[in-house]
């Protein structure tokens, strides 16, 4: 099981952690929502909790809870700028499609 990120994503995470002033890394997860079923969640990880899986990529820590991991395992996280918008972008091999706005996704059966 693994989740990786690009160097751009790692730099953005490190920059945000520095601004926040604390945290060990980025906490990734999913939640049920939207027109397609699931959405990604992002938060600062103050610590790794029991049951969390911790990944290191480009000297940056990613923390994923056990319930979310099967849905995002094998994903690659990038940070992209499109016009005036900036966001993290998942390449998730478990996702089958996204809604039109890109906020939610569904899973392969």
UniProtKB/TrEMBL annotation:
PANTHER family: IRON-SULFUR CLUSTER ASSEMBLY 1 HOMOLOG, MITOCHONDRIAL (PTHR10072:SF41), IRON-SULFUR CLUSTER ASSEMBLY PROTEIN (PTHR10072). Pfam families: Fe-S_biosyn (PF01521). One of its GO terms (molecular function) is 2 iron, 2 sulfur cluster binding. One of its GO terms (cellular component) is cytosol. It comes from Thiobacillus denitrificans. NCBIfam families: iron-sulfur cluster assembly accessory protein (TIGR00049). GO terms for biological process: iron-sulfur cluster assembly. This is Core domain-containing protein. Belongs to the HesB/IscA family. Gene3D superfamilies: HesB-like domain.
């Amino acid at each position: 099981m693994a989740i990786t990120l690009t160097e751009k994503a790692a730099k953005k995470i490190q920059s945000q952690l520095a601004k926040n002033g604390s945290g060990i890394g980025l906490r990734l997860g999913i939640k049920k929502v939207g027109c397609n079923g699931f959405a990604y969640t992002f938060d600062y990880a103050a610590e790794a909790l029991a049951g969390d899986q911790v990944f290191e990529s480009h000297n940056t820590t990613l923390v994923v809870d056990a319930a979310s991991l099967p849905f995002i395992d094998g994903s690659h996280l990038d940070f992209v700028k499109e016009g005036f918008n900036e966001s993290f972008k998942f390449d998730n091999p478990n996702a089958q499609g996204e809604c039109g706005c890109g906020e939610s996704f569904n899973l392969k059966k």
